[in-house]
Amino acid sequence: MEAAQEVGKELRLPPNWLNEQATIYLSKHKDFSLFKMYPSEGQFGLRVLLARPEYILAMKLLAFRLYAADVDDIQHLAVHLNRTSAENLLSLLKHYYPNEQITPERVLQVTELARKLHAPPKS
Known about the structure:
123 residues; 2 strands
């Protein structure tokens, strides 16, 4: 916990920045890179790993909550990764979560999101 607090201070994160709520969305594809070790390499402590943007997008698609911030995150990542079609998004989701059953509701949500991404801007 001390190492987590040190990381939080260094990165100016809120005191509750580290939690385990997202662990239910972890994929068997461990698509991470090492960011830093605390207190230092070779010592017992905390390893901070960064997930690839594709992995984060797949996690958000799996969780797909209709909160504005989540939808904004998904849209930003989809555009950044040039994965804006429903087929691309669903393919990414299936890549990271091959054993998950993708519900018809999720397919509809992803299809609607992709439609919005390709819609002409409102004037």
